[in-house]
Prior knowledge:
binds flavin mononucleotide, single chain, 7 strands
Amino acid sequence: MTLREIPLQHVRPAAHAGNLDALLDQRRSTRDFSPQSLKLSHVADLAWAAQGSTTAGTRTCPSAHARYPLTLTVVAGNVADLPTGTYAYDGERHVLAPVASGDHRDAVARTTLADHDWLSRAPALLMLSGDLASANASFAEQPPHGRRGERYVWLEAGHASQNVYLRAAEAGLGAVLVAGFDDDRLIALNPTIVPSGQHPLALLGIGHRADRVPA
Ligand SMILES: Cc1cc2nc3c(=O)[nH]c(=O)nc-3n(C[C@H](O)[C@H](O)[C@H](O)COP(=O)(O)O)c2cc1C
């Protein structure tokens, strides 16, 4: 099946939205997902939280020298209104651009060190990746010379991941950060899931919590 570009509904942050203390209190790692489909709007909201553009023209998480080096890839398997496939999230345009058709959740989950069984049941996976060599070159003048930039990229992946956790908590959804995976096996997947020249930084499983299934 040939995938097409998917325009996402625009997020309109409300001044009253959320109560940060409550969301921080409710944030949990979820590994027990219900089989219920996610909505496309859920994926849109979590993608925006991770790497969306803000009204100030920045992104939703901070970035050293405002380089914004992260790419968010959506591996969708059980999302209503979204053909099964892998997509690159374009935060500037708030669209999902096709990468590969087919359900790649199982193949991606198999690259984890211990989390295949339950992670492959998440309706969708979010993957954060970035170009470490380019970041190292950009910050080569900062000690430790040639390695500072990649630290910033890893830190930024942590910011984006927490954004997903908090947005999921607000939506009553479950999310979990899985950073224990075999980088080389993830990069080597066929079809390619990790963007060319980039390094995988984090996987997040997202879905409905089995202990809180909506009516
Ligand atoms: C850097 C990092 C890596 C993690 N990697 C994994 C992982 O590979 N597999 C997993 O199931 N959970 C992973 N987690 C989630 C933690 O296990 C989870 O945060 C911890 O159990 C505390 O639970 P809580 O998030 O509900 O507070 C990771 C969390 C962090 C911050």
